[in-house]
Amino acid sequence: xxxxxxxxxxxxxxxxxxxxxxxxxxxxxxxxxxxxxxxxxxxxxxxxxxxxxxxxxxxxxxxxxxxxxxxxxxxxxxxxxxxxxxxxxxxxxxxxxxxxxxxxxxxxxxxxxxxxxxxxxxxxxxxxxxxxxxxxxxxxxxxxxxxxxxxxxxxxxxxxxxxxxxxxxxxxxxxxxxxxxxxxxxxxxxxxxxxxxxxxxxxxxxxxxxxxxxxxxxxxxxxxxxxxxxxxxxxxxxxxxxxxxxxxxxxxxxxxxxxxxxxxxxxxxxxxxxxxxxxxxxxxxxxxxxxxxxxxxxxxxxxxxxxxxxxxxx
Length: 314
Known about the structure:
Layout: E1 6-13, H1 17-28, E2 34-36, E3 50-51, E4 61-62, H2 63-76, E5 80-82, E6 86-90, E7 96-100, E8 104-113, E9 117-119, H3 125-129, E10 135-136, H4 139-142, E11 150-154, H5 158-170, E12 173-177, H6 187-194, E13 199-202, E14 205-211, E15 218-223, E16 229-233, E17 236-239, E18 243-245, E19 276-278, H7 290-310
Parallel strand pairs: 1-2, 1-8, 2-5, 8-19, 10-17, 11-12, 11-17, 12-13
Antiparallel strand pairs: 3-4, 6-7, 7-8, 9-18, 14-15, 15-16
C-alpha cells in the first residue's frame, strides 16, 4: 500500500447518473464507497434545465434538482461524497493508486470510472450565455421543447445528421449549418437528411453569433466563401460537433477507442485491468442519456461487488 495514502475498498471517480447509481448499489451492498465528484459535481445534467425523459418524474424535473436527489440517495446509504478532481493514476499493482487535485493520494482495491464526457462547443460568448435558454448540445434531450418551431443545428458528421433528422420530425423547419461544402456523415445519413423536406442545409457557413436577450431569437451566419452575413430567425440552436470523453488521465493504462472512449468487455463494465470498471458516457458514445448512464452505473457496482467477493476482499 502506498505511503501517506488513504485506502478504500471501492473508489468512484465522477458524480453523474452513472457514478451516483454505482454508489447507491455499492453502498447498499456494504462496500462503503468513496466518491470524488470531479470539477462538475452532478455532471452534464447540472447545466440542463427541464428533464422530461427520466422515468419517475411525470411532470419533469430540473437537471440540478435531479442530481441532488441522486446525491442524497447515495449518501443515505453511506456513500462518502467528496469534491475533488482525479489528476493522475497508477494502475500497475493489485492496489490501484489515484491522486486527487495533484496532491492527495488514494489507494483502492476496485475503482469505478464514471467521469463522463463533455460536449464540444463552438466557443462563442452567446452560446454559453444562452445555454439552457434555447441553446443545447442534445437534440434527443431537448428537441421536444421546440415542437412546431424553427431551429438550427451546427455540425456535419453522423451525430449532427441523426439529430437533424430527429428534430425534423418535431420542428417546422431545421437549418443545418455545415462549415464546408460537404458532409462528413456516412452516405446513408447524408441521404436521410437530403431527403427530408423541412431540413435546409447551409453549406460553407459558420455561426457568427446567436442572437437573443433572455432566449434564442435568431442566428447570424457567415458564408466562408463570400464573407456575407445573414440572420435567420430561430428559437432553438443545437450544437452537434461531438463530445470528448473525460478520460485523458487513463491514457496508457486503459484501452480506449481512437476518440478516447473507454472500451469495456461487451455486456459488462470490465476494462482491460482487473478491478477497474467503467460506466456512463466515458464508455458510451452511442446513447449518452442519463437513464443509460444510470443503468451502466448499476452494472459497474454489481461487477465490482462480484469481483471484490471473488478476490476475498468483500
